[in-house]
Write a structure and sequence with these properties.
The complex is a heterodimer of chains A (214) and B (369). Chain A is of the alpha/beta class and 214 residues long. Chain A is 57% helix and 13% strand. Classes of the chains: A alpha/beta (214), B alpha/beta (369).
């Protein structure tokens, strides 16, 4: 059951689109069965850049909500069964990863904290004090963005390394099997790539499998 | 007897029919026989159960068989070495379709009734008709990304050349499964007991087949604990494993299984009626409100199968799970260490525990003359 009815949440989206040029508004999807706690969080974030859409009992609508609201951040009680749905968003379903902030009433919050994949989420203690909420959300969003940037950079670097290795390997094979100089081998590959409109590493791949079979 | 280094333990479990070994070990006094004072803590999600185990808030937990491997690889979490010294159960899942999808299958295939176990190719027509009419894709649910449920669902669909592109697969917590089927949010699901039986009893689903119809005798739940916990408290782990093994042996008898269903039904555990817990435990698969149950003697296995003891965490079981994870594309760009399975699956601890159990039996016979 959703506390805020669909119309309201759609208005939110419409509003946020209008305001986008003024302040960068961040949409929060809050999943909490404790109504009181949810209300205090909502009021703590009044007049801030965070706008909350609240789900009391997320049951069936969580995936739909994520689709419709396209939240910038998800806030969830660590004891909610819906945690497993969020866990799958980026693994099974192909949703864009979102920062997830979890809160827990447990005293050992800090202990759990160290074990969560860094940059993806952070835990908040049970009593969501107004003055603590904003900095925590700010930090979570910032950390998440930093982490995503690093991830993209890492995969780019890995990709570059892999293609350089392929090209080197193909070049060496050409030099050995066709008695070419290094320069000529590279030029031959580059020419093939340009003539056939392929990427240099694709040409390298084809060459390697071809030269290894003859 | 063995002297555990730590006697007070907190174990995590998810309320499911195959959490029976933990509940039986507690209620039948097997933990206390081994000098352990165990608190069973109900968990609402697999992810939180895992995080609490990683953080040491739980000393050990009932886990989905692929989870210790996923933790050790750092899939979806920080990399933490988790081991399993004991397989707790085999099989136990089933695929249940909503009544609406059941009717769609009958209509599109011109059938009066379906034959069970249901062949996945009967879905092909439904999928193509929906595509032609521009209707939404079928949506199936599973319980966790790193679960046999997910791999079994994929295998069943693949048997009819249905790929994940032909339908949506989502994760839904077991507690919400029946409500989702009823509301139409999902068209089918692969889930463990008692949720399949619950959907059938309520008249909102057809249990098309059990996981035993897809994979015969594969590990479903395992005992998971931190490698570091075992290193510092080896005797505690032996005692814990021994008590659970005894519970698994106790669960071998069908009359005991009915008693187990009664224990499980209490609100501190499954909080569900014996009506929906007992059937799978005694080898009955409820199918549909208008159809008779199917006899599936291996629906829940806790100790023995036709191939001998099931509780040994054999390497080959781990390798099989790794191959399933790889097929599902979960190991792309992940470096899998060659000794991963040997680090995680620990038959050596199981064998030590078995010797202790035999010692205890010998002493018992000597005492009783």
């Amino acid at each position: 059951m959703i506390i805020m009815d669909r119309k309201d949440s759609l208005q939110h989206i419409a509003l946020s689109k209008e305001q986008k040029n003024v302040i960068a508004e961040l949409r929060i999807l809050l999943i909490d069965e404790n109504r009181q706690r949810a209300e205090s969080l909502t009021s703590a974030l009044n007049n801030s850049r965070y706008k909350i859409s609240h789900l009391v009992n997320p049951d069936m609508s969580l995936l739909k909500q994520v689709d419709e609201i396209q939240p910038d951040i998800i806030v969830i009680d660590i004891e909610s069964p819906s945690r497993d749905i969020l866990e799958s968003l980026s693994t099974i379903s192909h949703y864009n990863p979102k920062p997830v902030v979890m809160f827990s009433g447990e005293k050992d919050t800090d202990t759990i904290n160290q074990y969560i994949e860094s940059g993806v989420s952070a835990y908040v203690v049970g009593d969501l004090q107004a003055e603590r909420v904003k900095p925590i959300l700010d930090a979570a969003v910032a950390r998440f963005r930093e982490f995503q940037k690093l991830k993209v950079e890492l995969s780019d670097t890995k990709q570059q390394l892999a293609s350089r290795n392929l090209i080197d390997q193909a070049k060496r094979l050409l030099m050995k099997k066709k008695n070419l100089s290094e320069d000529d081998a590279f030029k031959a590959m580059r020419k093939t790539a340009m003539d056939t409109g392929q990427k240099l590493d694709d040409v390298a791949k084809t060459l390697i499998s071809f030269l290894n079979t003859i | 007897m063995i002297e555990p280094e730590q006697t007070d333990l907190t174990l995590g479990f998810i309320p499911l029919t195959d959490s029976a070994p933990l509940i039986v070990a507690k209620e039948m006094g097997f933990f206390s026989q081994w000098g352990l004072n165990v608190k069973l803590q109900k968990q609402n999600s697999w992810a939180t159960l895992r995080d609490k185990l990683h953080a040491g808030l739980l000393d050990a937990a009932q886990m989905l068989a692929p989870m210790p491997l996923a933790s050790s690889l750092g899939l979806g979490c920080a990399k933490v070495k988790v081991i399993t010294p004991l397989v707790l159960s085999l099989n136990g899942n089933a695929i249940t379709l909503s009544e609406k999808l059941h009717q769609e299958i009958l209509k599109e295939n011109n059938l009066v009734h379906v034959t069970l176990p249901l062949a996945a190719y009967l879905l092909q027509k439904v999928i193509s008709v929906r595509r032609e009419q521009n209707r939404p894709k079928l949506r199936f649910a599973t319980v966790f990304p790193y679960s046999c449920h997910y791999y079994q669902l994929r295998d069943w669909l693949a048997s009819a050349n249905i790929s994940e592109a032909d339908l949506d697969i989502v994760v839904v917590p077991p507690v919400n499964m029946v409500a989702f089927l009823q509301s139409g949010e999902i068209d089918g699901c692969c889930v463990g007991g008692p949720w399949n039986a619950k959907a059938v009893r309520a008249g909102i689903g057809l249990t098309a087949l059990t996981s035993f119809d897809i994979w015969q005798d594969s590990p479903e739940k395992v005992l998971g604990l931190l490698a570091s916990f075992q290193q510092t408290k080896p005797n505690t782990v032996i005692a814990l494993t021994a008590a659970l093994k005894q519970a698994c042996i106790w669960l071998e008898s069908i009359p005991n299984r009915f008693e187990a269903a009664r224990l499980l039904s209490s609100d501190q555990y499954l909080d569900a009626s014996v009506d929906v817990i007992a059937p799978s435990l005694i080898g009955s698969c409820l199918t549909h409100i208008t159809m008779p149950p199917r006899a599936i003697p291996s629906y829940n296995q806790f100790s023995k199968s036709s191939n001998g003891s099931i509780n040994v965490p054999e390497y080959i079981r781990g390798e099989w799970l790794i191959s399933q994870m790889r097929n599902a594309g979960q190991l792309k760009n992940i470096e899998v260490p060659a000794d991963l399975v040997r680090d995680v699956f620990r038959p050596d601890i199981y064998q030590q525990m078995r010797l202790k159990l035999e010692d205890q039996a010998v002493q018992f016979y000597r005492r009783s003359g």
